[in-house]
From TrEMBL:
Entry similarity comment: Belongs to the peptidase C12 family.
Gene name tied to this protein: UCHL3
InterPro entries hit by this protein: Papain-like_cys_pep_sf, Peptidase_C12_UCH, Peptidase_C12_UCH_sf, UCH_AS
Catalytic residue list: 93 (nucleophile), 167 (proton donor)
Source species: Rhinolophus ferrumequinum (Greater horseshoe bat)
GO biological process terms on file: protein deubiquitination; ubiquitin-dependent protein catabolic process
Protein name: Ubiquitin carboxyl-terminal hydrolase
CDD domains referenced in this protein's UniProt entry, alphabetically: Peptidase_C12_UCH_L1_L3
Chief location: cytoplasm
Keyword GTP-binding: no
A single MF term (Gene Ontology): cysteine-type deubiquitinase activity
Reactions listed under catalytic activity: Thiol-dependent hydrolysis of ester, thioester, amide, peptide and isopeptide bonds formed by the C-terminal Gly of ubiquitin (a 76-residue protein attached to proteins as an intracellular targeting signal)
E.C. code: 3.4.19.12
């Protein structure tokens, strides 16, 4: 896995957060320091997901609206294998991004006995994106871990109602295609063909102009 910032869950390393949720550390998050080929070559392979942290700007919001309207008008192919959920909890985009990254690579992951995250994924597998969001709202094992992790971190955590203009999304490879998974959007977005070997490079080409 790869991320743009190591401390994506406010003030706490992503790996530590996942460990607390019962994920065995056979995969780890690493920083992506830039988009040049030389910097990308420093990222250990294979990469099974990319977490992108970026500022929400007026330009991006216009782009997001236009993109959604285009997809609703023209349609898109989305495999039923994609695990996607909506975000209804304030300041939880990092947690949603992590769930998206892990859920769409579950067969590659090793979970500890009694893992709260594994239990959540198993129980929500047949739910709709909206049902998964509501289920997470009341899923104490993950919610409490999120809140505890934030307050144990190295930086002050924002309150649940504080306005935060940075946002996390996950990009994953599922059934030969690159999917953007953003809980603020109504559906996954298919960005075309990719593979486990090309996921990082294809993602960089996609987000480069933003």
């Amino acid at each position: 896995m790869a991320s743009h910032l190591r401390f994506g869950i406010v003030g706490l390393g992503l790996d530590q957060f996942l460990k607390q949720l019962g994920l065995h550390p056979n995969w780890q998050f690493v920083d992506v320091y830039g988009m040049d080929p030389e910097l990308l070559s420093m990222v250990p392979r294979p990469v099974c997901a990319v977490l992108l942290l970026f500022p929400i700007t007026e330009k991006y919001e216009v782009f997001r609206t236009e993109e959604e309207e285009k997809i609703k008008s023209q349609g898109q192919d989305v495999t039923s294998s994609v695990y996607f959920m909506k975000q209804t909890i304030s300041n939880a985009c990092g947690t949603i991004g992590l769930i998206h990254a892990i859920a769409n690579n579950k067969e590659k992951m090793h979970f500890e006995s009694g893992s709260a995250l594994k239990k959540f994924l198993e129980e929500s597998v047949s739910m709709s994106p909206e049902e998964r969001a509501r289920y997470l709202e009341n899923y104490d094992a993950i919610r409490v871990t999120h809140e505890t992790s934030a307050h144990e971190g190295q930086t002050e955590a924002p309150s649940i109602d504080e306005k935060v203009d940075l946002h996390f999304i996950a990009l994953v490879h599922v059934d030969g295609h690159l999917y953007e998974l953003d809980g603020r959007k109504p559906f996954p977005i298919n960005h075309g063909e990719t593979s486990d070997e090309t996921l990082l490079e294809v993602t960089v080409k996609l987000v480069g102009p933003l």
